[in-house]
Design goal:
single chain; 12 strands; binds nicotinamide-adenine-dinucleotide; binds 2'deoxy-thymidine-5'-diphospho-alpha-D-glucose
């Protein structure tokens, strides 16, 4: 029975990944979830699996060497999937040091603990051990031409403290492969969207604000481009890389779905109008007039676009969910999970919102 150690499994992508693994493999696997439960980690995301016998939650900070090593001592871990990170660019501009701690030091602690548990006396590793480090397309920097793409060979050129910290963690993983023949693999994925995403990120923030008749803050001219992938397709990509990817390699994951931010906002408004019942009082709030152009993000990358050629040709992975389908599923999920949205936007979230958006000037 394969044992996965998923870090950051209570966050957006991690929890979707855990749901995906249980749907695909059922009782044939064990999942250990190590998460510090920061503001972004939410045990509610895992209510449906928390009582499974083949699931165990550890409230652990990945920077805590002793606690992480203890998990490896207690369990014969086959595969680490390292999601745990500070993940929001705007927060990294405010507090870079937190990103260095979790994303760089935390990854180093995970690598050390896995190596200590797995490396044999002859410097080799048992068959099948894998450390999959989940990274981002942001490490490649920003594209200008509309026909430029990020390939695995594109040099790293991070611009935000977030992407710089993720780039550093990628280099650490690579250094362990090169130095210790460590069984590491890196995936670099584009922007995800789907259920359980915290409403500090573009899509859930716009859904939540539109439902509440609050302004929709579009940074700069709204023409920055992101390459959107439905989160379940990301989970399938990671699964494909764990099972068929080559040690020491990087795999870009993305679905050629590049959109300007303002286009995304219009699609959300149109889809909300389509899905909300005529009699639903929230429908009245949904209006194009809520769109407000505000001061741009500092160092705002212009365009991201992934070339997923390698994962497609080597592993046969393709995105299965079109954007039209994915955004409907996502919006329907937020409409059906109003309680979840209310819970995560009460308390601390209000302070965050005021701090981040209160200072943003209309432009
Ligand atoms: P998220 O912010 O929703 O979740 C992060 C999770 O990590 C939370 O559960 C949080 O509690 C946990 N965490 C944070 N610090 C921790 C620590 N010190 N120790 C243990 N747990 C800690 O993030 P996400 O959007 O799900 O992203 C997951 C990973 O995927 C990140 O590594 C991110 O860089 C990468 N990624 C994200 C996207 C995206 O579009 N969201 C795209 C590509 C790659
Ligand atoms: O590309 C992958 C990355 O995608 C991941 O590595 C990050 O973890 C994830 O947060 C995401 O980063 P972005 O900065 O691209 O995502 P975000 O949702 O914050 O912003 C998407 C775009 O929308 C970006 O151009 C900024 C813009 N934006 C965002 C917010 C929150 C707005 O215009 N208004 C907003 O209020």
């Amino acid at each position: 029975m394969k044992t996965y150690l998923v870090t950051g499994g209570a966050g957006f992508i991690g929890s979707n990944f855990i749901h995906f693994l249980f749907e695909k493999y059922g009782d044939d696997i064990r999942i250990l979830n190590a998460d510090a439960l920061t503001y972004a980690g939410n045990p509610e995301n895992l209510r449906a699996v928390e009582n499974r016998e083949n699931y165990r939650f550890y409230k652990v900070d990945i920077c805590d060497t002793e606690a992480v090593s203890e998990i490896f001592r207690e369990n014969d871990v086959d595969c680490v999937v390292n999601f745990a990170a500070e993940s929001h660019v705007d927060r990294s501009i405010d507090h870079p040091e937190i990103f260095v701690r979790t994303n760089v030091l935390g990854t180093a602690v995970m690598l050390n603990a896995a190596r200590a548990a797995w490396e044999k006396e002859d410097g080799k590793y048992p068959e099948g051990k894998r450390f999959l480090h989940v990274s981002t397309d942001e490490v490649y920097g920003s594209l200008s031409g509309s026909d430029d793409y990020f390939y695995e060979t594109t040099p790293y050129d991070p611009h935000s403290p977030y992407s710089a910290s993720k780039a550093s963690s990628d280099f650490l993983v690579k250094s362990y492969v090169d130095t210790y023949q460590f069984p590491g693999i890196i995936t670099n994925c584009s922007n995800n969207y789907g259920p359980y995403q915290f409403p500090e990120k573009l899509i859930p923030l716009m859904i939540n604000n539109a439902l509440n008749g609050k302004s929709l803050p579009v940074y700069g001219d709204g023409k920055n481009v992101r390459d959107w992938l439905y989160v379940e397709d990301h989970a399938k990509g990671i699964d494909a890389v764990i099972n068929g990817g080559r040690i020491g390699e990087k795999y870009n994951i993305g679905g050629h779905n590049e959109r300007e931010n303002v286009e995304i906002v219009h699609i959300i408004l149109d889809t909300l109008r389509e899905l909300l019942d005529e009699n639903d009082p929230r429908r009245e709030n949904v209006s194009d007039s809520l769109i407000t152009y505000v001061t741009d993000r500092k160092g705002h990358d212009r365009r991201y676009a992934i070339a997923p050629d390698k994962i497609r040709s080597e592993l046969g992975w393709e995105p299965e969910t079109t954007f039209e389908e994915g955004i409907r599923k996502t919006i329907r999920w937020y409409l059906n999970n109003e309680e979840w949205l209310k819970n995560v936007t009460s308390g601390e979230y209000q302070k965050y919102y005021e701090k981040m958006y209160g200072a943003k000037k209309e432009s």
